[in-house]
Amino acid sequence: MTVENLIRSMEESAEKQASAAVVKGEADAHAILIAAQDDATRIRRECREATGRELRAERMRGVVTAREGVRQILAATRAELFSAAFLEAEKRLSTARCEDWYPECLGRLIDEAWERLGERTMVLHADPRDVPLCGTIITEKGYPCRVEGDIATSGGVIAESDDGKVRVVNTFEERLIRAKEILGVEIGKVLTGE
């Protein structure tokens, strides 16, 4: 082999190696490009998903905050309505003596007290304005008791056993207090639609 042939052979071999290196480089570059595109697609998808999760979480925080605000407003409104209803009841009861139904109502309150005391002799404590009416009622019913005009009330009586050991408070004010306790939960359910 001549030197020229040897050089040519070396050049051809170098060209083949260079061509192979270029082809391999292009293939590696293409593979790297595909992998980079796949990574970019995956990263974009992960970013969208993370952003979506954050947005949903923020929206839920807003919904929870709004619901709590509405609950607080409803609770305050419910309390105001409840108070207003009982204030109106107190106002109406303060003028009950002027109503046609009052004598019958007072009679029922005295009957309840009589029954709760076990139908024994009692002392009725009444507002001085009710003493004559109480006297008429106990006379008609034949209850053995006396009436004292020694309390201030919108209506009703306080009954005590003769010995003072048993006391029944049956005034409008006391009944309203009991009604608030008993009806408070029920009124709250009605107002909230439960």
Explain what the structure shows:
A four-stranded mixed β-sheet has the order 2-1-3-4. Helices cover 71% and strands 10% of the residues. The chain has two domains: 1-93; 99-192, hypothetical protein PF0899 fold, CATH 3.30.2320.30. It starts with a helix and ends with a helix. The model has no long low-confidence stretch (mean pLDDT 84). The protein is an alpha+beta fold. The chain has helices at residues 3-93, 102-116, 131-141, 172-192; strands at 122-126, 145-148, 156-161, 167-171. α1 (3-93) runs antiparallel to α4 (172-192) and α2 (102-116) packs across α3. It has four helices and four strands.
| CATH domain class of the largest domain | Alpha Beta
Structural class: alpha+beta
CATH topology term of the largest domain: hypothetical protein PF0899 fold
Unreliable parts: none
CATH architecture of the largest domain: 2-Layer Sandwich
- Let me know the largest β-sheet: 4 strands, mixed
Gap from first CA to last CA: 106 Å
Give the strand order of the largest sheet, numbering strands 1, 2, ... along the chain: 2-1-3-4
The total number of structural domains is 2
- Which bin fits the share of residues in helices? over 70%
How large is the count of helical segments?
A: 4
Instruction: Give the C-alpha Rg.
Output: 47 Å
Oligomerization state of this entry? single chain
Mean pLDDT value: 84
| Total beta strand runs | 4
Tell me the CATH superfamily of the largest domain: ATP synthase, E subunit, C-terminal
Order of helices and strands: HHEHEEEH
What form results from the Cα inertia axes? rod-shaped
Taken as a percent bin, the fraction of beta residues is 5-15%
